Amino acid sequence: MIDPRLYELGWDDEWTEAFEQSGAVGEPARVIRHDAVKVLVATASDVGQMTFSRSTPLAVGDWVVVDNETVAALLPRRTVLERDNAEFGTQVIGANIDVVFVVFAVDRPPNHGKMMRFVAFAGDVGAVPIVVISKADLGGADEYASLVDEWLPGIEVIVTSVDTGAGVQAIFDRISGRTATFIGESGAGKSSLVNALMEEEVAWIGEVRESDAKGRHTTTHRELHRLPGGGMVIDNPGIRALGLAAEGEGVEAIFDDVERLALECRFRDCAHVTEPGCAVRAAIDSGDLSEARWDAYVKFVAEQDAAGRRAEERERDAAARRDAVSAQKARERSERLGD
Ligand SMILES: Nc1nc2c(ncn2[C@@H]2O[C@H](COP(=O)(O)OP(=O)(O)OP(=O)(O)O)[C@@H](O)[C@H]2O)c(=O)[nH]1
Ligand SMILES: [Mg+2]
Ligand SMILES: [Zn+2]
């Protein structure tokens, strides 16, 4: 029997199904915080620390089955927001996230490339990306919003200010009882928005140095917060640079118009340079597609391809290491047998 209070943590009937299919014995719980060796989980009635086995990497937002203060099973993730980190490999930001708010503050110069990158990243996992233009009380939000309209047609924009309270209700409405996260650069105002939603200060807010508007990285851990009135949010440390994932729908999603156009070229392998019947060139010539947008698309695709090659290389290296280890083990075994 599922405790109805679980639904306040983001549970739904599909999770009941996944739980039953897992065959795991114990109580469903959600990971709300993750430390090196322990996780903090919430069950329907309680919050507590649990140990988990190293072979089951967990992330904030995961649904697990707990038994005897131990995580017994991980229910299959619906979405995983993760980023490629050259140093540490893949880093999971959060699991089972429905909505990603990509936050940009008006006190930094607008940069459409950055915006597209963050939105593509959110779209990669199948979460709904929404752009938030924060600190609107400082002025200049319109310029930002029109840049989003130009470069990210179809993506929703919410203009906010925690000083005036503008847009906070709209964010709450978009979460609508589900699980959301906030991503963006340090100092963008993510924690401030989370606090505004919580109606109290739960996350640490940093001071922005006035001279250069560079925020310190004040949010250092991820934690799932429960909103009064329903819904869950994960605050995130600031992200400075974001690489594109090798695979994923993000780039396709933000360049839907360009991809559709390319399908209309006469030749299937059209390089969109000098080919006759090229729909892309025709659209650029007629002004339907801006040269700048096309260039951005070409750049994003090239970067995605490069990420794909790097991922393949890493996979090949890992396979070679596995082969070397098993060859070594086989040698040791035969030496022991020989003794
Ligand atoms: N004027 C104004 N300032 C804001 C607003 N929202 C946030 N700030 C200020 O911007 C600074 C950074 O806000 P945070 O919420 O800590 O930013 P963050 O995105 O969580 O930063 P990291 O945790 O470092 O990634 C703080 O000094 C806030 O007071 C706003 O709506 N208006
Ligand atoms: Mg923060
Ligand atoms: Zn073409």
- Order of SSEs: HEEEEEEEEHEHEHEHEEHHHH
> What do we call the CATH homologous superfamily of the largest domain?
P-loop containing nucleotide triphosphate hydrolases
- List each distinct ligand once: guanosine-5'-triphosphate, magnesium ion, zinc ion
**Dominant shape:** globular
Average pLDDT rating: 87
What is the helix fraction of residues, given as a range?
A: 25-40%
User: What value does the Rg take, in angstroms?
Assistant: 23 Å
Judging by the overall fold, what is the CATH architecture of the largest domain?
A: 3-Layer(aba) Sandwich
Largest beta sheet: what is the strand line-up?
10-9-8-11-13-12
What is the top-level CATH class of the largest domain? Alpha Beta
Descriptive account of the structure:
This protein is of the alpha/beta class. The chain has three domains: 4-74, SH3 type barrels (Roll), CATH 2.30.30; 80-235, P-loop containing nucleotide triphosphate hydrolases (Rossmann fold), CATH 3.40.50; 255-327, Ribonucleotide Reductase Protein R1, domain 1. 35% of the residues lie in helices and 21% in strands. It has nine helices and 13 strands. It has helices spanning 13-22, 112-124, 141-151, 168-175, 190-198, 250-254, 256-262, 279-286, 291-338; strands at 27-34, 38-42, 47-51, 63-67, 70-74, 80-85, 89-95, 99-105, 128-134, 157-159, 179-184, 223-226, 232-235. The strands form three sheets. It has a six-stranded mixed β-sheet, with helices on both faces. Strand 4 and strand 5 form a beta hairpin. The longest helix has 48 residues, at 291-338. The relative contact order is 0.10. Residues 207-217 have low confidence and may be disordered. It binds guanosine-5'-triphosphate, magnesium ion (MG) and zinc ion. Magnesium ion (MG) is lined by residues 190-191, 203, 218-219, 235.
